[in-house]
Amino acid sequence: MIDGTAVRYPQFDWRHLLLVGHSLGGDSSAQFAADNPSRVSSFISLDSRRVALPRSAGIHVLTIRASDTTADRGVLPNEEERGHYGTCVVHIKGSRHKDMQDAGSEQLKAKIVSAIDTFLTPAQHPKYACDRDSKLE
Question: Which residue among 4, 38, 86, 132 is the one 20 to 30 A from 124 at the CA level?
Answer without folding.
Answer: 38
